[in-house]
Amino acid sequence: MASASKLLKQTSLDAFLHPNPSKTLNPIYNHQSLASSNSTSDYERIRLETIRRNSDFLQKLGLASTPPAPKPQTRKRIPKTPSLPSIPLRRSTRKRGPPPPPSDDTDEPSLPFDVEVVDSSVFRYACDGENHSSFVPLPSVSTFSASIVGFKFVGSAFRDPSLTNIYTLDACFLEQERFLVAAGGHAGFISVYGGEGTAVEEDGTQRPLMSWKGSRSWVSGVMFMERNPMLLVSSSNDGKIIVWDIKKQQYSSTWIPPIVTESVGLHSSGIFSMDRFDCLIATASKDSSVGISRLLSGGELVAERNISGHHSGAIRGVCFGDDKDKLADCGADGRICILDARLKKPCTIIINSQHSTSLNSVEWCRMNNVLLLTASRDPTLLLYDIRSYADPLCKLAGHVETNSGICQQIYKPSFIDGGTQVATVGQGTGKISLYSVEKAKLLSQGMIGYDANLVKPFEYGTADYIIWTAGRQINQFRPLRNHLQIRMLENLKGSGKENELVD
């Protein structure tokens, strides 16, 4: 009873101190639970009473604790869109490498209509009037008959970190010893380089002026349009032929140039090879057909003809002869076919080659339109005379290691020096090899440093040749002439007897 009386007095005191009934005590303490709990121990009652008194005292001072307010809900920060890289306005800014390539999951190399386009680095390079070239061509001996005896490195190598393996290459001359080089290959990447006057990186190589992903598959051909070098044609293993306007590029992270036109219906399978004659484009496809398209001045591509039925498998190589209606192709069935595009049945000659593996490359000698050069995975090259083609004219061997057997990599040789010689790369040697067509003899070899995929000659204006080799990078070579012959020819030229020299 004493405890109950004491508790009643305390409750009256509480009513005096807190006349406002709406004001409650701290929720951590419950009066009724204390009054009704007779089973609570004395120690527990004393502890709770002490807590209550302390709470009352804090409330009178205005310091009573209140339940913590809930934290305001924070909104997730939206990451800022990275600002676009500034467009280089001067040549010196080209020392900066190209932007990172887009991811491999890019489905289509298309240009959205709402993306701004700007002048490309290629266009600015082509318009640069200053002659920044450090390349001084040797006196031209192309009018002489002095033979090539070897090659030497010139300039710096071209390399694109995104394009790790090059399958195709083309070059076009601009002016003032300046030219453009285009390359395509693995993973669908295409690169365009400025031949002279561009900055050299710390590793001694030149980076591309433009680099982009042009196909979901690998690129089989790149070619500049002869009448407009700002239009670049590409073919690829997805069966597409695309014309790119390389004087413009997206103002975005991809820097992809606009597509002028795209042909997707000419072939039902991948395109393995492409060649050009003036405004005509020939393509060899895995669907066993050769397509012929006409490139109009505005960049439009018009399919003119599809030739099929002359091969039993994929056609892997095609090239024009000395006119627009004359072509040669080669295929996985080991056949070399001569085509006349004017005829209803265009296949006029079928050559069953003596290669032991599928043919990958055929080239017509345009200075001697009866000679064909073929390559397969064999360690030998074959030369054919289409006037008598039962057997090859000669075999060229020595550019591949003798113990290699069948080559694992596809390689493409080329006629050089007016068709009098053949230059080629070869698996396992890391070299460029030079053959005499007349003597069917290996003349010399020069070290590249790795196994390249192709050789491509390019006449440098009115000067001599540049020989390109390409694989993981592009290297430039100048031919070395027979200096004794050159001196004799110069003397003969002065006397008007330059045609008297015979090897």
Outline of the structure:
The protein contains 5 helices and 31 strands.
Structural class by SSE content: mainly beta
Percent in helix:
10-25%
**Number of E strands:** 31
Shape: elongated
Calculate the mean pLDDT score and round it.
Answer: 80
**Biggest sheet: strands, sense, closure?**
5 strands, mixed
Q: How much is the radius of gyration in Å?
A: 39 Å
> pLDDT under 50 segments (min length 5)?
4-13, 15-19, 21-37, 79-113, 131-144, 495-503
Distance between the termini: 140 Å
Structure overview:
- InterPro entries: WD40/YVTN_repeat-like_dom_sf (IPR015943), WD40_repeat_CS (IPR019775), WD40_repeat_dom_sf (IPR036322), WD40_rpt (IPR001680), WD_repeat_DNA-damage-binding (IPR050853).
- WD repeats lie at residues 212-254.
- Keywords: DNA damage, DNA-binding, Repeat, WD repeat.
- The chain is mostly beta strands and 503 residues long.
- It has a domain at 2-60.
- 12% of the residues lie in helices and 37% in strands.
- The protein is built from five helices and 31 strands.
- It has helices spanning 2-17, 31-36, 42-60, 121-127, 483-495, and strands spanning 117-119, 148-158, 166-173, 179-185, 189-194, 205-206, 210-213, 219-225, 228-236, 241-245, 248-250, 259-263, 271-277, 280-285, 289-295, 301-308, 315-320, 326-331, 335-340, 347-352, 359-364, 371-376, 380-385, 394-397, 414-416, 421-425, 431-436, 441-447, 454-459, 465-470, 474-481.
- It has a five-stranded mixed sheet with strand order 6-2-31-30-29. The protein has a four-stranded antiparallel sheet with strand order 3-4-5-7, covered by helices on one side. A four-stranded antiparallel sheet has the order 8-9-10-12, with no helix packed on it.
- A hairpin with a 3-residue loop joins strand 14 and strand 15.
- The protein is elongated, with a radius of gyration of 39 Å.
- The N and C termini lie far apart (140 Å).
- The model is unreliable at 4-13, 15-19, 21-37, 79-113, 131-144 and 495-503 (pLDDT under 50).
